[in-house]
């Protein structure tokens, strides 16, 4: 699997998790949910967003390196 496909998979799984998390609002409406969201869920989603962005940047760098190596042959 390529870095780009793993990046897309991570982004898709994050969307799915986010959708599921929002569904908990129907059942879990107290302050503990808000506390949990603030302490665990938001940092998780922020980290995933940063990872997806970094993977995109890394993919660009790797493609450039491959391209440069191929033209040097």
Describe this structure in words.
There is one protein chain. By secondary structure, the chain is mostly helical. The chain is built from 2 helices and no strands. Helix 1 (3-23) runs antiparallel to helix 2. The two termini are 26 Å apart.
Tell me the layout of helices and strands.
Elements: H1 3-23, H2 31-72
Summarize, please:
This protein is mainly alpha-helical and 73 residues long.
Q: Tags for this entry?
A:
mainly alpha, elongated, 73 residues
The biggest beta sheet reads: none
Q: Helix-strand pattern, N to C?
A: HH
Helix content: over 70%
Number of DSSP helical runs: 2
Number of strands: 0
Strand-pairing-aware structural class: mainly alpha
Arithmetic mean pLDDT: 94
Shape: elongated
Indicate the low-confidence ranges by residue numbers: none
Number of domains: 1
Percent of residues in beta strands? under 5%
For the CA atoms, what is the radius of gyration?
Answer: 18 Å
